[in-house]
């Protein structure tokens, strides 16, 4: 996966030179730093060279930026090692059992929900660590996630999930093909299809990724053709629609074969029975982690930060939070580090691609 990110950076650099957006020169150091800048080397977030170059020679260090980076790094560590790796135990166990037999209904649903939470907190945790280290070095890397699970459509999801990858394919594939400004819908369908097929192949040549790509294409195309965003549908039903989409998408993405994906699906509809034993056992052991994860899927912390920055609260409360916040970050750092040292070590989800 690290090689593929490296290749995408190199392609964007060459294309931008061809377009005249980068002055072709002898800045070997700037180019090498752009390609191998370690915080973003493996999983991103992706940046265009013109954005990165400005920071190579024009960035400014400050204690505030450094402290912001440290806090962001600690949050990413907590996301990965406390939440993702713990909930990931349930997801891994469910999919391992699916290799042997059809899962009971409660465990099948708990397993796929666990995988969705694991994937989000694992990947966004890495990006938080990457962005945090960038801040500490004086670089401002782009955001890669914007609370994707609160969306109400597939198209909106792709504007919130892995944002820099979606922007890369939009800038260097979708728009050059004509984008959505085309003469007829046949060309539009071709453009959307190619984007998702390339996304599927980029993740791997397994048949599950190809079907995953076609699945995303069909839902996206449906939303475009019926003008989903303009339809008068209650938000509750929009969220249910998206939840069903992301559950089935996750099965295809996580399963090792289409056969196993099909077996997992029939478990979701109750073919494997309704034994509650495993689900109750997992929820009893890890219930608090699910509560924390579901809360942090919502923009609660961002809203609180905005209120604090805008001095909405009384001054004494704001001052108290500013004093206690570093202490909380230190405690969170120690807890996350302890989970890394003594907990079950699960590699980043994207390492498997």
Please state the structural category: mainly alpha
Number of helices: 14
Which descriptor suits the 3D outline? Answer: globular
Overall radius of gyration: 22 Å
Helical proportion, percent range: over 70%
Oligomer: single chain
Order of helices and strands: HHHHHHHHHHHHHH
Low-pLDDT windows of residues: none
List the helices and strands and how they pair.
Layout: H1 2-19, H2 28-36, H3 49-58, H4 63-98, H5 105-136, H6 154-160, H7 163-174, H8 185-203, H9 207-225, H10 235-254, H11 258-268, H12 277-296, H13 300-309, H14 315-342
Brief description of this entry?
This protein is an all-alpha fold and 353 residues long.
Can you put this structure into words, describing what you see?
The structure is a single chain. This protein is an all-alpha fold and 353 residues long. The protein has 14 helices and no strands. The model has no long low-confidence stretch (mean pLDDT 88).
């Amino acid at each position: 996966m690290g090689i593929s990110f490296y290749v995408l950076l190199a392609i964007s650099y060459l294309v931008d030179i061809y377009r005249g957006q980068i002055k072709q020169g002898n800045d070997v150091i700037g180019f090498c730093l752009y390609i191998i800048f370690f915080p973003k080397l493996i999983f991103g977030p992706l940046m265009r060279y013109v954005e990165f170059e400005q920071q190579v020679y024009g960035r400014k260090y400050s204690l505030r930026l450094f402290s912001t980076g440290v806090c962001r790094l600690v949050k990413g560590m907590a996301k990965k090692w406390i939440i993702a790796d713990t909930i990931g135990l349930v997801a891994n166990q469910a999919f391992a059992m699916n290799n042997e037999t059809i899962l009971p209904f409660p465990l099948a649903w708990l397993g796929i929900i666990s995988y969705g939470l694991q994937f989000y907190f694992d990947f966004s945790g890495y990006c938080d660590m990457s962005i945090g280290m960038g801040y500490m070095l004086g670089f401002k890397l782009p955001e890669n996630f914007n609370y994707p699970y609160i969306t109400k459509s597939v198209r909106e999801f792709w504007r919130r999930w892995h944002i820099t990858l979606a922007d890369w394919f939009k800038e260097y594939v979708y728009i050059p093909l004509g984008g959505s400004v085309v003469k007829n819908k046949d060309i539009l369908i071709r453009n959307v299809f190619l984007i998702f097929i390339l996304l599927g192949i980029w993740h791997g040549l397994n048949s599950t990724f190809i079907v995953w790509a076609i699945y995303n294409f069909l839902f996206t195309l449906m939303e475009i053709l019926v003008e989903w965003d303009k339809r008068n549908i209650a938000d509750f039903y929009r969220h249910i629609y998206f939840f069903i989409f992301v559950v089935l998408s996750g099965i295809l993405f996580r399963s090792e074969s289409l056969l196993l994906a099909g077996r997992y699906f029939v478990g979701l509809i109750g073919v494997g029975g309704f034994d509650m034993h495993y689900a109750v056992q997992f929820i009893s052991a890890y219930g608090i982690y699910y509560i924390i994860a579901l809360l942090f899927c919502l923009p609660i912390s961002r809203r609180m930060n905005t209120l604090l920055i805008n001095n909405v609260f009384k001054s004494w409360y704001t001052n108290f939070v500013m004093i206690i916040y570093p202490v909380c970050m230190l405690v969170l750092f120690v807890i996350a580090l302890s989970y890394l040292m003594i907990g079950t070590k699960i590699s980043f989800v994207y390492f498997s691609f």
